[in-house]
Amino acid sequence: MTSICTLDVEFADKIDTLLKPPSPHEVQDYFDKLIKTRQCRGISIKQDGEYGKGVYAEREFAEDNLVLKDQMVVGAQHSSNKVDCLVCSYCFRFIGSIELQIGRKLYLQDLGLSSSKDCVGMHQHTSKGFCLDDSLDEEENSLMMGHKKSESCSSSDQDDKIPLPKEVIAALMNGDLVLPHSNQFSLPSVVPCPGGCGEANYCSKLCAEADWELFHSLLCTGERSGSSCREALMKFVQHANETNDIFFPAAKAVSFTILNYKKLKAARLENQESYCHLNSSEDYGFSLLLEAWKPLSMGYKKKWWDCIALPDDVGSHDEASFRLQIRELAFTSLQLLKEAIFDKECAPLFSLEIYGHIIGMFELNNLDLVVASPVEDYFLYIDDLPHPEKEKAEQITRPFLDALGDDYSVCCQGTAFFPIQSCMNHSCCPNAKAFKREEDKDGQATIISLRPISRGEEITISYIDEDLPFEERQVLLADYGFRCRCPKCIEDQP
Predict the structure, then answer these.
(1) Strand, helix or coil at 53?
(2) Chain segment 312-321, per-residue pLDDT in tens
(3) 262 to each of 22, 126, 208, 255, 259, how far by Cα in Å?
(4) In terms of CB atoms within 10 Å, which of 15, 70, 217, 427 comes out highest?
């Protein structure tokens, strides 16, 4: 039996308005203003009837030039990845110290937690004076399942690792043991969540305040949370961890829109508009919701259960059943989120139609969130030291490297929606790529030119592995809803 969301019926007209694609004028105005705020001089967004939005060069780019640095609207670290990486919950920069990153990973590894397993648990211990006898909070030690890790960040078997004494790991985490040359890789200090949840940590007070204002105040499970029901919120978190952590960025998108709506409303009140007028005018309130929703309205959307790729182990005869199960999964997630943070003035956001389209937007538009770990740079630095100095340093560092095993350095990974990057069209012979340079230490999308790009030329990236055979490329691109007709595909077509 298919579950029914009553809000889909009650707010059908408003939902249709929220999901209606913005007019070409609205799109152009929005992106023209957005580009001015980004580190992306020399590009523009243009629209055409066949391919929709596209990114074009307004100047010449040489090979390996920076084309774009794009700040995400919404992003979230994969649940499983939190075992390996302690990062800022807002900008996703690595935080703490080299010692804390290594010690925390070894501690969780000794608990039997590993991002290479299907079910993992995690807890973020960051304060000085941590004791290995401390027990994990029940909700923080729940089983978690997230996105599969990429091969570049794969883990080795526990049998390949040589464990260290617990007191050594504790000394590393507490700052009582300092590794040689770690001062060459200083990281921002850990700033805890202002709501007291213990789950979110930040690289600065500014990031903590920004995340609280934009997302986290409604999604924090701490005592100072703005959630109407912390218990329901914890159940939402558990459900996402046990099923699919794409629900986390979806919840952040809903939270972002609600908080943006409240900010817009407060600004109107400060301009001496009547509070009575604001509350009595339903159309006026909805116009504010439309304005708050605008950043998300720009992303291409389809319902998640309609656009998610069919798994390899699901045959075409089971497709209808599979998509129904995905819909029911989203419905359960939505009900938990609704119980936790429902806002009557923003009620249409809690319809299954809107929620499904938000998740579908991430499915179709997301660029993987990736930030390289400084731990890898640290061990490479040790390896490159002059021989006498290297030998001395490795007497201390080698046991830690052996304890970590092959996965001694794992990048931060997650899912994010980048507004300008999402406008870039695909080509199997792209002229640009997403690529982090040495100086790119946070979660912003960085697009680099692969070859010289002429003024007026469209800037394209590849959504898939462009080195695959023609038919395999077309099958993968079918999940995005189009058949590629780039020069390479025209040439390769049988």
Answers:
(1) strand
(2) 888 889 999 9
(3) 22, 33, 19, 11, 5
(4) 70
